[in-house]
Amino acid sequence: MTSAPPSAGQVALLPARAPRGPGRPKDQRKRAAIVAAATGLFMERGYAEVTMEAVAAAARVSKMTVYGHFRDKAALFGAVVRGVSDQMTAALTGLPPAGAETDLETRLTAVGTALLGMILSPRVVAMSHALMGMLMKDRALAAAFYEAGPGNVRAVLARYLADAAAQGLLRLDAPQAAADDLLGLWEGDWPKRIALALVPAPSAGEIEARARRAVRVFLRAYRAA
Amino acid sequence: MTSAPPSAGQVALLPARAPRGPGRPKDQRKRAAIVAAATGLFMERGYAEVTMEAVAAAARVSKMTVYGHFRDKAALFGAVVRGVSDQMTAALTGLPPAGAETDLETRLTAVGTALLGMILSPRVVAMSHALMGMLMKDRALAAAFYEAGPGNVRAVLARYLADAAAQGLLRLDAPQAAADDLLGLWEGDWPKRIALALVPAPSAGEIEARARRAVRVFLRAYRAA
DNA sequence: CATATATTGGACGCGCTCGTATAGGAAACA
DNA sequence: TGTTTCCTATACGAGCGCGTCCAATATATG
Hints:
The structure is a homodimer. Chain A is mainly α.
């Protein structure tokens, strides 16, 4: 097949085993460089359009080194997915200023601004699209990624809203559904339009304006009476 | 390149010129069969994963006939995009029961149910994803498709909401933005989860329930006081 | 009927990419 | 120092899909 669906074999983790053998150990920085280069390329071109030679060149490494670290293209892609998932979770856990000292509208706007700042970057949009393209062929990996990525965002946001409801700031039946609604309002069809390059990359100001507007609409529907 | 980005050359329209030359004219039914087969295949597999031979076989036609109707793979894809766009517009123009005799909530729920019934079909989800994959490489074609597809949906819905506002049923500043909100609430991240096969194809009941819930939230935010 | 074009089926060249093989040099252990 | 393993560079086999060529046949027009 010209561009086979990656079954994305077992991902080789970075700190797997200590270099306990004799002889020269594998250079983990080269490995990181390979993953970084592959991530960038997969992000902006998609799986099929990226050749292993291009990855090697971008990582300034011999192609054989790439195959030394990863059995095949699918395994490399698996490592990329893993890395992106980890990045997503890490980026989000630090975000929400859980304190209730400031206005809920202000806090939600801040969260939305940060989130959209990540999600609406053209590179990230392109990547998540390419990513989904491959994940659609591997349900197990897809589930793992969704849990670590979008699913985690949903869960964190749902907890956040549930807390606010517990404090009497919101009136909502299902936090999960409300989180869905807020995310839907935040995103709209901007990802589509950005992916198709119908609009330029949104500025920080535009992003904050969109986050704020969506929060206002959301609160009109969910604010406690 | 193994799977080149389709620049999607000029699309050959169906009723272009009458068969005014001497000799045997091209069989337009074969052409239609080719486009239909290609649409189905591109929908469920994506551009790179579909071979011209597969298209020919699915259309029960010789490969040479395919190349007789379309210069190359990109041109065939362009025809597919064109056809899908036309289908979308056609399907939507007949939808909204513009009469104001029934409840606005009921009417919007009906529109949303019909829309989601189209959009959330796993085949359509997969197709729109594959479609975007190629369109991301051809801005002109992307714009044309967006205008005919999602953009048109937005525009129609915005007009619909503006009408309702003119009748005093809604209170909204920007119909376009409100339409965005409603669409965002309708979709949520269901397309993502369906694309990744994390949830089975939604039943008609689930679709209507989702449409109704989203409309209720929307109206809480936008209903006239 | 004569003519021009469409369609078929098979075969094939071309270019591309994956993944492997090989050999020499580099770097980390003991 | 010696040994083991890694890294590089290059070449190469194998497979695959695009697009073309060809000879034979079918089907429309004038």
